[in-house]
Amino acid sequence: MADRPAGLVLIVAPTGRDAILASDVLGKAGVPVRILPSLGKLAAGINSDVGAVLLAEEALKGGEIDLFLDALRAQEPWSDLPILLLTHVQSGRKQISLAMERLRPATFVTLLERPFAAATLISTVETALRARRRQWQVRELLEERTATERALAESAERLRAATDAAKVGAWDFFPLTGELIWNDHCRTQFALPPDAEVNYEVYLAGLHPDDRVRADAAVKAALDPKGTGHIDIEFRAIGFTDGIERWLVSMGKARFANGRAVRFTGTTVDITERKLAEVRIRESQEQLRLVIDNAAALVVYCDSEQRYRFANRQYEERFGLKSGSVIGRTIEEVVGSAAYDTVHKYVEEVLTGRTVEFEAKIPYEKTGPRWTHCAYVPDKGPKGEVRGFVALIRDVQERREAEEALREAKSQAEAANAAKDHFLATLSHELRTPLTPVLMALADHLGDPGLSRELYEDLAMIRRNVELEARLIDDLLDLTRVSRGKIELHTEVVDVHKVLQEALEICTSNDTVRRQITVDLVAEAKEHHAHADRARLQQVFWNLISNALKFSPNDSHIRIRAYNPAPGRIAVEVHDHGFGIEPDKLPRLFDAFEQGGRAVTKRFGGLGLGLAISKALVELHNGTIRAHSEGRNRGSCFIVELNTCAPTQAAPAPIAIDGPDSARPLRVLLVEDHETTLAVLTRLLRRAGHEVTPASRIAEARQRLADGHFDLLISDLGLPDGSGTDLVRGLDGHAPPSIALSGYGMDADVRECLEAGFHSHLTKPVDWQRLSATIQQLTTCPAPGDEAGSTRASYRVSPALRPS
């Protein structure tokens, strides 16, 4: 009984003890039972879980039979609830027939006559329950079929949606009948209208002529029972109505029966875009290869094992390799051991994931040592792993050789420049040194009141020419400084009016008086202070005024004006009515050695350096200089503009120098190896009242310093047994006030003297007034003076000395 079907049995037996007895018998047999009091309760209790109904015929006599019949009719189609009807033979066949007529249209009825044995009841119930179990199985099968049908419908809908979205063509071919069915996408791929007839011949006709035979053979192979039954082919279709060529891929599977293909289904997909992309990629790869092969660099790709996976044509040609023969070989095998030893550390570094760039002289085995620039770039995978690296290699041997040649040329040029500077400095020294005694002797004689006027003018003329010679030497040295950017400015707050007035006074000469040139100075700038190097600014003004005097005719007029063209700016304008400047010469006027042509140079002399030097000096002051002229014989105008600044609280006035006898008597040690200079200087110093001890050697000077006390040391630098700087350094900071005399006047020379311990440096030729003023500055305290304001003056140019 263990396999007895489960199921609830409902019992309705309203009279007698039938319900109790039946329930007891079935319960002992393991059948679940529930007793209900009436047909109404039975109608309410019928559901799909009820296995059978045990019904006494007496229960059918009530008024609730219609409810029971309605419940039976409401069962699902699969359900036919078994009814076991308990009857009495004595009740008569007629009544039983009536009951059966009402029940059987609604359900399955089995008669069970009373009295019955317990085994009969159990057997009958078990049979009914088995029938009910089969109904339940039918129900499950129906439910499964419904679910399957629903899933198939959903799958078909998804497939249709997917094919529609992907524009996949679907086809179904029946080889036995030749029928071919295409969906709309298939028709679109062949450019066929929706109502056009389709068959296998139409399919073949729509193929590209070059692909037709191959596609037909692929179909026949798939329909061959001896084959795989599959097709997977790419071909071109030519649209029937638009003539457009389309690439399609078709896949399908054949079904066989009795050794024959009965159905062939599959899909087609338009892959035109992919094919075009592949063509573009192939073309791009060919173009890339063309570029790489003809690039001005060697390009390779090596994997993580340092084996070549790609090399451009240039690389293969460099090492004399056949095309493709480098692939798979190691770096060391191709370039040689010596070259590999040079690049090995860089290869190891790039394989750690870092980009490497270097330049080295690599000793290649086949080409010899070559300077090479290399850039290694790592190739990393999705997870950051290094799969290899790309190497871009350029031969820079020629560049390196050119750089080496350039360095050599630069070295030679620097050496030539140094030699030129040394030559100019030496030439300057050699030219300056003999001029010093000449200027001092002239100053001594010009101070003699007993000189005749004619002799006085001759001596003054000699002095002017000596000073001009010195000026030319200074210009040559300044030009060297300008060209090498070595002019140094020592700026302070200066009164531009005063500097301009001093430059004008320096430019006066008896020759100019003789020529009757009048110079007007109009100093009307309200803002007339600037940050400037006083000496260099004076040099600029001196150059401009000297040029104006030089190129002005006799009985002419020069106007100098200082004014403020704008707030924070001061302009100095020098205007003459002389030779003038031709328009085509103006753009080159401030170039070195440019004087306006050979005719001007031959007529007026000079080297043409003053304006070039003045322009450089003005620009170092962050100023501007420009020239203007209406042309030949119409005069010229030069204008210098500078930024102004506020004046200082008190500025020292120039030291008043009354003459050589104004200084107090000093004990002077004079060291000079040039005999004439030594003699003239000794005479002038003694005439000024000083006690002079002469020496011509360093050793002699040291002995004099050891033997006595001196108030002042005046020493030449270039001495037979050493330099004057050695003499001062040897005094270890205990030297008296000292003045260096030298024919070397470069900034470095001056700096070296001052760093050695000299208190002042005078560049030869040294005139007596400069020397006397310097002596007074070093041995007395200067008296304070007042600032000069706006002035207007007119000068008949008088004798004076050139600027220091």
What can you see in these coordinates?
The relative contact order is 0.05. The protein has a 6-stranded mixed β-sheet with strand order 21-22-20-19-17-30. Strands 2-1-3-4-5 form a 5-stranded parallel β-sheet, with helices on both faces. A hairpin with a 2-residue loop joins strand 19 (557-566) and strand 20. Helices cover 43% and strands 24% of the residues. The protein is built from 25 helices and 30 strands.
Summarize the structure.
Helices cover 43% and strands 24% of the residues.
User: How can the largest sheet be summarized?
Assistant: 6 strands, mixed
**What strand line-up does the widest sheet have?**
21-22-20-19-17-30
Q: What is the count of DSSP helices, taking H or I runs of 4+ residues? A: 25
Give me the count of strands: 30
State which percent range the strand residues make up. 15-25%
Label this structure with key terms.
804 residues, alpha/beta, five-stranded parallel beta sheet, 25 helices, 30 strands, elongated
Secondary structure elements and pairings:
Elements: E1 8-12, H1 18-28, E2 33-35, H2 39-45, E3 50-56, H3 65-73, E4 82-88, H4 93-103, E5 108-114, H5 118-166, E6 169-174, E7 179-182, H6 184-189, H7 200-205, H8 209-223, E8 230-238, E9 245-257, E10 260-270, H9 272-293, E11 298-303, E12 308-311, H10 313-318, H11 331-335, H12 337-350, E13 356-364, E14 368-380, E15 386-395, H13 397-432, H14 435-446, H15 453-483, E16 492-495, H16 496-506, H17 510-514, E17 518-523, E18 529-532, H18 534-550, E19 557-566, E20 569-576, H19 598-604, H20 610-620, E21 624-628, E22 636-643, E23 667-671, H21 675-687, E24 691-695, H22 698-707, E25 712-716, E26 718-719, E27 722-723, H23 724-730, E28 738-742, H24 747-756, E29 760-763, H25 768-779, E30 791-796
Parallel strand pairs: 1-2, 1-3, 3-4, 4-5, 17-19, 23-24, 23-25, 25-28, 28-29
Antiparallel strand pairs: 6-7, 6-10, 8-9, 9-10, 11-12, 11-15, 13-14, 14-15, 16-18, 17-30, 19-20, 20-22, 21-22, 26-27
Helix pairs in contact: 2-3, 13-15, 14-15, 14-21, 15-20, 16-18, 18-20
